[in-house]
Specification:
Helices cover 1% and strands 47% of the residues. The protein is mainly beta and 653 residues long. It has a five-stranded antiparallel sheet, with no helix packed on it. The chain has a four-stranded antiparallel sheet with strand order 2-3-4-5, with no helix packed on it. A four-stranded antiparallel sheet has the order 6-7-8-9, with no helix packed on it. It starts with 29 loop residues before the first helix and ends with a strand.
Length: 653
Amino acid sequence: MDIPQEENPSPEKVFYPPSPDKDALPQASVEELRRGRRRFTRRAVLIGLAGMAGTGLVVKALLGNAPISFRKGLPYRGHTDVVYSIAWSPDGTRLASASNDKTVQVWEASSGSHLLTYTGHNDAVQSVAWSPDGILLASASLDKTVQVWVANSGSHLLTYRGHTDAVWDISWSPDGMRLASAGNDKTAQVWNASSGSHLLTYRGHTDAVWDISWASDGMRLASAGNDKTAQVWNASSGSHLLTYRGHTDSVLSIGWSPHGTRLASASWDATVQVWNAASGKHELTYRGHTGPVWSIDWASDGTRLASAGNDRTVQVWDAGSGNHLLIYRGHTDIVRSIDWSPDGMRLASGGNDKTVQVWDATTIFTYRGHSDAVRSVAWSPDGTHLASASADATVQVWNASSGNRLLTYTGHTNIVQSVAWSPNGTHLASASNDKTVQVWEASSGSRLLTYTGHSGPVQSIAWSPDGKRIASASWDATVQVWNASRGSHLLTYTGHSGPVLSIAWSPNGTHLASASADATVQVWDTTSGSHLLTYTGHTDSVQSIVWSPDGTRLASGSNDKTVQVYNASRGSHLFTYTGHTDSVQSIAWSPDGSRLASASNDKTVQVWEASSGNPLFTYTGHTKSVQNIAWSPDGTRLASASADRTVRVWWML
């Protein structure tokens, strides 16, 4: 499909720099990193190049540079010097931060209120890590020690003194039985977490070891070194397994993917590289930063990587393709550490500006092109474009990656209630309060036909799976089916006693389900128009109806604040979901049928397990009623349309 060029100018340029060379980025040395000789004070340890671009909260999408809306909490300013490390507690309720001010601080993640300060170290604290059960914290310091202490009280439990120089990083084994530490003495060491007894020393690096990370199976450790290598070794024996030499300068951070099949490494060479953990084969290089990259972290589902850099940014990108997703510019100085919350919905970052910041990592971007409430949103079949329908009487098509508007269709004379793509993505159909359905060419916006068979506002529109028919639902209490290419009327269904608010074809195209203000859902044969069954489980107007991808179940959302799921052939009730506090305006099945999403007047989007009704996530970015939702074809994103005049695109976790 040929889509016009984007209308919106790019308000800020964000670009991929070329690969750095030795003149652009001089090699790091241990002494320079330790003593902060790279244009910083002597108190700054492990500080890189100064003065990169970006101050204030500005978030942009790289593709098209469209504005992105993020909800960010106030920065936490409890430290008096550089924040080197940040870590979420396993339950996501607390954050711990380590600083050049020689302290570790613990605070409540939701409010930023200070809970505890630990002052056991006598030099800068470089790293902090929670035990898997969240009971203990371990910290590593320039004072050559690792210390373990109780997270709730700050009481000291043990000090490990096996290193002969600064300890840069600390990491717990997945079972919490062992700790691994990385040091300036060129070693990584493993020791018993409860007794502090030394278990093994790994001496494979020829220079300082900056970072250490356990694989999820607890059998392997990966280490990042100033010798430009990342190394993998057996965590029990210390035997070397492989060395990765893809970087051209110091490797500052290393992290395993959640399943232990891939490793990501961040370097002073301004790149993040992803490679196969078993073979060491390079998979991709990300070049979004303009200076050294200090920290990387995988999201818990393994689909995204976050990186923190000398350029004062945190960047998020697709871990499979390397495509850039987000840039966050909330810090006013180098960002030293990044950590995903356990649920993957928030990111915490700490930096040289002495702050820890927490921000919403679920929203990809917010589209603000409409001048009134957005009533409907729909993905193109290939997932590259979105169409939105609004009370401003327009339909707009825009790039689903950047949010940049591509075209605006102005053929209707009243509120546009619904928009839908044809199955092949070449056409769009729209339904309006002007009592018409219009079909138009998606690439140009030229109108192809107008259907005027309804006597009241048209609330919903749906293409048949083969693209040959269109069904429309109206306030005139009818559902009408007509030929999509000619606009000729095929049949009218008149079984409802009130306005019909939603319509949906079964996946095989043999049945239609309709939802009405008469509080019923009805199913009927698409060839004959004969009525098949009526579902009467709701106690108020039914706003939305959808089939499961396999056609065996139907889900409906109602003004009675519930979503109900039932057997599509018999109409028998399966379960009721009651998570919303106001009417449910729209529901949508994920493409694989495992999840349902619901949008409500309570301003939230909720995602829950389709088989049980168990709630999974709640998204709260909108400021007014959420009118409509739609899954991307690959199931990785959800778009929501709201009365606040915006469409938001969310990551599905």
